[in-house]
Description:
Blueprint: E1 2-9, E2 12-18, H1 28-43, E3 50-54, E4 57-64, E5 70-77, H2 82-102, H3 112-121, H4 123-132, E6 135-140, H5 147-155, E7 170-176, E8 179-185, H6 195-201, E9 206-211, H7 215-231, E10 236-241, H8 252-259, E11 264-265, H9 274-284
Parallel strand pairs: 6-8, 6-9, 9-10, 10-11
Antiparallel strand pairs: 1-2, 1-5, 3-4, 4-5, 7-8
Helix pairs in contact: 2-4
Amino acid sequence: MLKDITVLRGNEVYLHKEFAISFKNSEVLPQLLKYFDEEVTSRGFYDEDLVIDIITLKIICFKIKTPLPLFFSLTYDDSSLPEQITPKLHKLIKVITKFLAKCNIPDKTLSEKQKEDLGAACSSNISDLLKLRPAKISVIGYDFTGKSSICEMLQSGNIPRKYKETTHLKKYNTELFGMPILLWDIPDQGDISDHVWRSFILGSDAVILVLDSTRENILESKMMVELTDEIIPHAELLIIANKQDSEEALEPKEIEKILQSKVFPFIANDPENINLIQKQAAKLLEIKAEGIDYSKEDYVIQRND
């Protein structure tokens, strides 16, 4: 998942696009990139593909000396493959250097209008980079909990008119607040310890576990929480206590006491909840977009981040 694109010329930022949170402290990445640029320059590492692994990130860098001394960086999650990314980075570099060559820049500074025009000139290349490794959200849970309804709310912004049981794996290539994502609606295989179920959730960046809020279902679903923690320990988790309008539904506080985890109380057949679930899913991936407020309460369970 692409989190950030930055192009520097010394202390001047020529291009900056932030798509998702890289570090909890927003000041860390800009400062790191500045240090990396200085280090690469001092060591003379020009025209070389550089990959920096740091915590759960891969920062892919490239420094050029001519026609202008520019430092390019793409920040991805650590599951991304640099060999797939670098060819597209080089295409982006060509577009940017060509654009700058047409601009008569007397000094290091670009006007705000020039920066906007540069962003527009790069838009198709940036789109390609975003699609290269979209984030994967796996939606899991037992039958009749509302998985398919929630997938429909996420990928189309609609509520299904009639119930359809998830009998086989469904994959959606969709967008969430402008970010390309993979959404997997994973069927109840009966035995969740089965190899097939495990293979479905591998590679997930985030997991949504859907409950029907009944005591029996909650107790059965505890194993899903434990197995996802074992198989994909770095994937963030959102537990949805669906069907809160049912007579058999337990109160959220009681569900949290059983699971020892916070839950998101929800009613999937309420159109007013579409935007709520989309925002919670965006927070799972730490997407940066208008309307997503990280200062407000969220229900994301961060595991081994």
